[in-house]
Amino acid sequence: MDSNAVDGGHLKAFIERIEKLEEEKRALADDVKDVYGEAKSMGFDPKIMRKIISLRRQDKGKREEEEEILGLYLSALGME
């Protein structure tokens, strides 16, 4: 294969796959947004829910270490 040649068929297939995945990603993001809206309408705080989801993704040990450091810093600032 010539180093300047481009396989248009393969390139098109990759581009179309990426476009399809990007479309699916947008649809999922819209679904997530709808769920947050539904939760908010029932009195839940979406900002706090996002924080909880972020915390649940973390390793337990890492989360505990960050909480300990946060507590230490808050205490040093007289905020605890």
UniProtKB/TrEMBL annotation:
It comes from the Bacteria. The keyword Nucleotide-binding does not apply. InterPro entries: GapR-like, GapR-like_DNA-bd. The keyword Coiled coil applies. It holds the Pfam family GapR_DNA-bd. Residues 11-38 form a coiled coil. GO terms for molecular function: DNA binding. Keywords: Coiled coil. Residues 9-78 form the GapR-like DNA-binding domain. Belongs to the UPF0335 family. This is UPF0335 protein B1812_02575. It comes from Methylocystis bryophila.
